Amino acid sequence: MGFSPEDTSNLSEEKPSFVTSTTSTPNWPGSQSGSIYTYDSVDIGMNHVCAVTTDNTVRCWGSNDWFALGNSSTPLWESSGVPRVVDYIGGHSEGTDLAVSIGSGGYHNCAIETDGSLKCWGNNDYGESGSNLTEQIQYPSPVMGLNNSSLIEIRAIDAGLSHTCAIVEEVPSSPVDSAARAIGGRVACWGRNIFGQIGDNTSVDRYQAVYVVDENGNEIRNVTAISSGRNHNCALVDGNPMCWGQNEYGTLGNHSHIGQNSVPYAVKVQTLRHTQRDVVAIGSGYRHTCALLDNGSIGCWGYNDNDEFGDGTSSTSEFYNARYV
Q1: Order of strands, sheet of 240-246, starting from the edge strand that comes earlier in the sequence
Q2: Measured between alpha carbons, how far is 53 from 249 in angstroms, rounded to an integer?
Q3: Is residue 318 part of a domain?
Q4: What is the residue range of 92's domain?
Q5: What does pTM read for this prediction?
Q6: Contact 106/94 with Cβ under 8 angstroms?
Q7: For the domain that residue 112 is a member of, what is the CATH number?
Q8: Residue 78 counted as domain residue
Q9: 258 falls within a domain
Q10: Distance between CA atoms of 226 and 112, rounded to whole angstroms?
Q11: In total, how many domains does the chain have?
């Protein structure tokens, strides 16, 4: 969702410029929210919205539950009907305090900064803001385990209800290493883990970032896109979709785990194999998942109680096989 020039005049109480932009190319592999190929200029939480503006500030509006707005002029639990600049007044030396991309969860947010570092704020009951403090984080703060911007770079971010995931790449030590490194990175997640949505093969809540593994315990690599639903995530790994977390309605698209309520590690999406098409983008919802294929078709699977699949079935049954919009 973007803003037209006419709309922005009503959104500029604090600064006369409120323009968002993107460099995405339609249907480019991984060109989606949470992709290494694009920046996310705007995202929506449970009761709030945040956007990155052309001056690299973050502005949020809506409800300030758990300090989701990150602004000192808006009292806790109250709301703002106009965009408020997020205050970088936490006294942290890391990063630039200038954002290029935003990810919003239920009541928390994370912003990638111009140097590839990451800061989060808002609710932290389960560690979703990346701090060992089990309380709300009022202002942007570094994520534990990802706070060394000289060694790593955050390439993409997305957030679920009470967890967060990011694509992390190692900073090359030389031009030779830079030319040789693979496209994409690893996935780090933190926050609530009751359904295995952190993907570290445990159900322990994580207050600092840990890396997602597959069923063999190996970290997934060469990830180009990440999408977080309410309690599950999906990623494009070497061009192939993998998912982990809550699987109550077949949300992960893997037939080997039918009837398994949660899967705490990344598994391959099997439900699209019959198409023999490449997946170029993937999106995770409340209890369903959809993927864009390279021929322009969209396949969805999981729970269809509110016609999420768009195929006209109007069925409340679980679908482990993809239906097509």
Answers
A1: 223-228, 232-237, 240-246, 262-268
A2: 38
A3: no
A4: 5-228
A5: 0.87
A6: no
A7: 2.130.10.30
A8: yes
A9: no
A10: 14
A11: 1
